[in-house]
Write a structure and sequence with these properties.
The structure holds two protein chains of two kinds.
Chain A lengths: L1 H17 L9 H7 L4 H31 L1
Helix pairs in contact in A: 1-3
Chain B lengths: L4 H19 L18 H25 L2 H32 L11 H4 L3 H22 L3 H29 L20 H40 L1
The chains are: A mainly alpha, B mainly alpha.
């Protein structure tokens, strides 16, 4: 579960780094990230924050579950 | 950890609220522009707050009927997260208002005096202060049973006070804030269909997230409580 969350987080982070590539890049992701006034960059940023917060809540949940078993 | 269906749906709905909320088409209104998308975030905070307060008062009434201290812990946790979401709703509303209500020819703080006269803002502040007093009241009573009973009764009063302060009085007074003649976000004839398909899932998602955090607090408090009981024996 934790690994999947981390993979997802890094995947989102990678999309946002690809948006930093040079203007001549014809990479599909980069052009998506640059379209529509670059709103997709905002989506990636907000999703990264949201996933970070959710991962934190899940971690707390697991820790409390462990305490409950003791 | 049990990843139950409602925790998964909270995550899915929140992702949808962010992606759909930022990308799906919205009606174009001159005053609001793209800030109309705040409906999915700012308004959801208040909806989640109201729902969490409702769960809280139900738990308080359950405590008064049974005398089971666990209901008191639940009531406190839900009220706490509800108040927190109310504060977030207030903060986001302040940002939104400073770019839609404030006089664009002056810096936003120059309009502070006129914006702060909004009856909805004053009403919401009163409601949050009443809930703030709930926590002050709790921490000022040291006896566990007495604290639970007094705060349960106060919680009923606080919930009752929500209705005049955020539902009734702001609608009797002139206001810039929407919702003067009813519930614009709930009214099917008023809210645009394109927004409805994001708004209702968003309300659910934020409420579930609030409930999730509340259950974490409750489980933590139960552990603390059982440790105290075990040490006394």
């Amino acid at each position: 579960m934790k690994n999947k969350m981390l993979t997802l987080l890094f995947a989102v982070a990678m999309i946002s780094t690809q948006a930093q590539q040079s203007f001549t890049s014809n990479d599909a992701t980069a052009s998506v990230m640059r379209s529509n006034g670059k709103i997709y960059v905002v989506v990636a940023v907000v999703l990264t924050i949201l996933f970070g917060l959710i991962a934190y809540v899940i971690r707390l949940d697991r820790k409390i579950s462990k305490l409950e078993k003791e | 950890m049990k990843l139950t269906w409602w925790k998964i749906s909270a995550v899915v709905l929140l992702v949808y609220a962010v992606v759909g909320g930022l990308l799906l088409p919205v009606p174009e209104l001159s005053q609001l522009g793209e800030t109309i998308r705040n409906l999915y975030y700012h308004v959801c905070m208040w909806f989640a707050m109201m729902i969490l307060f409702t769960i809280s008062i139900i738990q308080s009434i359950k405590y008064l009927r049974t005398g089971d201290i666990r209901h008191d812990i639940k009531a406190m946790s839900y009220a706490g997260v509800g108040t927190y979401m109310g504060l977030l709703g207030y903060a986001t509303g302040a940002i939104w208002a400073s770019f839609t209500w404030a006089d664009p020819n002056n810096p936003a703080y120059a309009s502070f005096g006129s914006i702060m006269r909004e009856p909805k803002l004053i009403g919401a502040a009163i409601a949050l202060l009443i809930y703030g007093a709930y926590f002050i009241l709790r921490s000022s009573v040291t006896d566990l049973d007495q604290r639970a009973r007094v705060s349960a009764v106060y919680n009923v009063f606080a919930y009752a006070m929500l209705f005049p302060s955020i539902w009734i009085i702001p609608r009797l007074l002139p206001s810039l804030h929407p919702g003067q003649e009813g519930n614009p976000a709930l009214n099917f004839n008023d809210i645009d269909t394109r927004m409805r398909i994001v708004f209702y899932p968003a309300v659910l998602g934020w409420t579930l997230l609030g409930a999730w955090i509340s259950t974490l607090i409750i489980r933590y408090k139960f552990i603390v409580e059982s440790k105290i009981v075990n040490n006394e024996k």
